[in-house]
Amino acid sequence: AASGGAGGPEAGPGAEPVPERGPESAAGAAQPPEPSVLPLLVCPLSKRPLRYEAATQELVNEELGIAYPVVDGIPTMLPEAARKIPARP
Amino acid sequence: ARGLAANKETHFGFQTVSEEEKGEKVYQVFENVAKKYDIMNDSMSLGIHRVWKDVLLYKMNPSPGILLLDVAGGTGDIAFRFIDYVRSVRERQLRRKLKHHQNLSWQEIADSYQAEAVKPLGDSQVVVCDINKEMLKVGRQKAQHLGYSEGLSWVVGNAEELPFGDEKFDVYTIAFGIRNVTHIDLALQEAYRVLKPGGRFLCLEFSQVNNPLLARLYDLYSFQIIPVLGEIIAGDWKSYQYLVESIRRFPPQEEFKAMIEDAGFLKVDYLNLTSGIVAIHSGFKL
Question: Residue ranges of region Disordered (chain A) (predicted)?
Fold first, then answer.
């Protein structure tokens, strides 16, 4: 099921609404991030490690309950772009 | 009495704005100029910015295996130079190795070339981080056109609040970016945090001209020619007006050196280029 997607309405003013399918995005639909960068990334707020969720193309900070979008293969590591994820029961 | 945290003021070029506004206004400037950024750099500096960036790489002198974080690296100029530099160092290393082994079989020679093909950068990596996704998009397109892909990644992030773990990088560069940051001290602290011990901070930025005659010509050129070029080439006078004003606002060489030292860096020094129109500041995390 298409859940959220990169930068849905909850994501705040900075994020794009839909991954671009124009000439700029080489792969057409959502590009995966460059794998070599993932181990280097942490949450900019807490500096704690993140979990990459391929299904939603997001980098998740479980502790703070927020997720950063990967837009067109580019991790968008700005607090304004993060969305709150509902706490698991 | 002044409000405590309420909207601290700062400068946006010669205007006074709140700190919050500055970030937004700077974002707008680069969003507007992104597509014409490279052309404008060439026009305004008559191509000299390429030499400045070459000198930055020469000072860095990276060897294969180095991990570079290029902050405010938008359109990729530093990243591509880094890749070229490391690639050529690696080629030379492999060639020197071959020369020393006189009695190689054809298979061994072929294997050497194979090694070079598989790891042309020898594990070097550059991460380009910029707060502005439009600038990064331009950079990524350029990379695709120029054939750069290996060892290169792009991240949207804020220099004041980097999304990287502690002690990850060997070198941190910021070229013509730090004067646009609202809290320069925070950016310097973050630079210190993400560098490995022994890592190097390098900043290429506009600075203060040390020659009075040249200073006058430079002022004339900056305020009379550059915004006009901005209007003609990019259709954006105001952004380039901001650019030249922001250059005047940035601390001169010695003051910036002190700020870098305040962040904890040691052996801080600077190299003036083109009579101080730009300077390369360098410091080490020791």
Answer: 1-37
User: What's the CA gap between B199 and B61, in Å, rounded?
Assistant: 13
Question: Which residue ranges make up each domain of chain A?
Answer: 56-84
- d(Cα B283, Cα A64) in Å, to the nearest integer? 34
Cβ neighbours, 10 Å, residue A5:
15
Q: What's the ipTM?
A: 0.84
What chain B holds in terms of domains, given with CATH numbers, is: 24-285 (3.40.50.150)
pLDDT tens column, B45-95: 999 999 999 999 999 999 999 999 999 998 999 999 999 999 999 888 888
A45 interfacial to chain B (CB closer than 8 Å): yes
Cα→Cα distances B17→B11, B168, B270, Å:
6, 35, 30
- What is the identity of the amino acid at A17? P
Is B43's pLDDT higher than 90? no
Is this structure's pTM higher than 0.90?
no
Question: Contact at 8 Å (CB) between B285 and B221?
Answer: no
Between positions 3 and 42 of A, the ones with CB within 8 A of B are: 24, 26, 33-34, 36-37, 40-42
Burial of B227-247, coded b for 16+ CB within 10 Å and e otherwise, reads beebeebbebeebbbbbbbbb
**Whether B131 and A41 lie within 8 Å, measured CB to CB:** no
Chain A nearest CA to B69, separation (Å): 11
Residues in B closer than 8 angstroms to A47, CB to CB, are 165-166
